[in-house]
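Quick start: load a record and inspect it. Here is AraC family transcriptional regulator:
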Amino acid sequence: MDSFEIIIGLKGTAYIMQDDIKYEVVPSSVLLLLPGHTHTGYRHSTGETSFYWLHFYCHGQNSILNRRDALDEISPLNSTPYFNKLNDSIMLPAFWQPESIEKSVILFKQLLHIANSDYYSSFCTDYSLTTLLLELSQQFIHASLNLNELPNTGGGNFNILLEWIRLNITEEFTIDELAEKFNYNKDYMSRMFKKHLGVSPRKYINGMKILKAKEYLCRFDLSIKEIAYKLGFKDEKYFMKLFKEYENLTPSTYRNAYYRTLYNNE
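Running the structure step on this input writes:
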């Protein structure tokens, strides 16, 4: 084929080979197939198997790097906050499993919706695709450099704290409890969030909750009230107000906006 192809696993395992390299595309894994290379299935899938896939062209310059060269390209991000060499670039590995695939799945659903909604301009799908590719690129760069890793301070570690928030985002906890759990002074922890993430701890946590809510709205048949309670909100009206504040849409409007999904039944 003359285009790139991205495949994101959803259910089961798809067995795909490019040239002589075999890949097992499992849920949450991402495979990038290259133009001008032969790819084929090398084994039958068992049980229910599904994945998202898309083709795209890259009209600008592109190159294939080994892992060492790729890390050398992006390593300045670790020490130079004003490094902007990658501003107009997207960097993707051939095959990997991002730490968090939820946002990419949501962006893929939005892309499918736009592609099938008769938008008057093809730029709509182009921009939506670019957003998806940037998200995948960000996931790869973040995982490769562990950009949030900071020295231990008072027995706590900022990167571990962020990971704990991600894993426990459906629980209800206070900022005081979070600081105490990771042996941080509350004010110092707030400064850490401001310095490295640009937001307060509460705003970051609420943003993560809204991101999880968007996943629930797109992937599960749950009521708004059920989603609010799942995310630790005792008041569904407050959840709806917060969602609109972050997304400029109500939860119901967001869910209804992306109802179309394509299935490859061949």
